[in-house]
Design a protein that fits this description.
- Helix 5 crosses helix 6 and helix 6 crosses helix 7.
- The strands form two sheets. Strands 6-5-2-7-8 form a five-stranded parallel β-sheet.
- By secondary structure, the chain is of the alpha/beta class.
- The chain has ten helices and eight strands.
- The protein has two domains: about 80 residues, no CATH class; about 160 residues, Rossmann fold, CATH 3.40.50.
- The C terminus is likely disordered.
- The longest helix is centred in the first third of the chain and has 17 residues.
- Helix content is about 45%, strand content about 10%.
- A hairpin with a 5-residue loop joins strand 3 and strand 4.
Length: about 270
């Protein structure tokens, strides 16, 4: 199928871990790795082509989705993964490496980071976007409930931050989400136990604090990334590290994942 533009670069990589159900987004295992892959890849190129020419995102996705007769799940995948080259480059320039966190103030978009790590632990789908950030695509935030995987995700976060040595850590959890206060308390207690300086709070609108934070912000939320100066892909860093080691949180009984390497889209 002929695409609208000649832009190079494959659709952002779908990262699947384990063989379980893909969660509420219900994106099928063969979505990118079957006869559909060419159609979805062409749709991604066309979507990116329109975005590069400053078409409104909503209308561009509708146009491309209708042209290729994409399902709601496929459109959601494109929405989470594909961005204009300019937008992707600007976000990449904001990314801060793990080594650059030392002695810096760090604010963490708590639910955003934990839900992404839980997706990895549970074998749910993750997407590597054009902007280099790893995202969960199951849409579970509204129905999120803390579980043993939440505790494991928190352990992985604190293990990494203990090595990174930021000067202070601020966890911000979305107050309206169920049991956010309990989650903030658990994070606070675990930081105290690990002698990590910081605070954990459940607040009505974390974004308001994150957008005014004078330090590094850990999130993969595009609205926050676009309005902050320095961003750390905390969940992505943990997932890449776990994959590189070929292990997951064996203490909690999660099985090792496959060894498929993470890839970064061109451009």
């Amino acid at each position: 199928m002929t695409t609208m533009g000649a832009n190079r670069g494959s659709i952002a990589s779908l990262l699947r871990f384990g063989g379980r159900s893909m969660g509420s987004a219900n994106i099928r295992k063969d979505m990118l790795f079957s006869t559909e892959s060419e159609t979805l890849g062409n749709a991604a190129k066309d979507f990116r082509y329109l975005l590069d020419r400053r078409y409104p995102r909503k209308q561009a996705l509708e146009l491309v989705g209708n042209r290729y007769q994409l399902s709601a799940d496929q459109r959601h995948l494109l929405h989470r993964a594909v961005f204009s080259r300019e937008e992707a480059l600007l976000r990449r320039k904001k990314r801060v490496s793990l080594q650059k966190l030392r002695d810096r103030l760090l604010a963490i978009d708590g639910h955003n980071v934990i839900i992404t790590i839980e997706a990895y632990l549970e074998g749910r789908p993750l997407i590597l976007g054009d902007d280099g950030f790893i995202r969960d695509i199951s849409g579970r935030s509204r129905n999120f409930r803390p579980s043993k995987r939440t505790t494991e995700a928190l352990r992985l976060i604190l293990d990494l931050l203990r090595r990174a040595k930021p000067s202070k850590i601020l966890f911000l959890f979305d107050g309206p989400i169920s049991r956010s206060g309990e989650l903030a308390r658990e994070a606070r207690e675990r930081m105290e136990k690990e002698s990590l300086p910081g605070e954990a709070l459940a607040v009505p609108v974390p974004e308001r604090i994150l957008l005014g934070f004078r330090g590094v912000v850990a999130t993969s939320d595009t609205a926050i990334i676009d309005r902050c100066a320095e961003i750390f892909d905390l969940a992505g860093s943990i997932i890449r590290g776990e994959r590189k080691r070929g292990v997951t949180a064996s203490r909690s009984g999660f099985r090792p994942r496959t060894q498929k390497a993470l890839t970064t889209p061109e451009g």
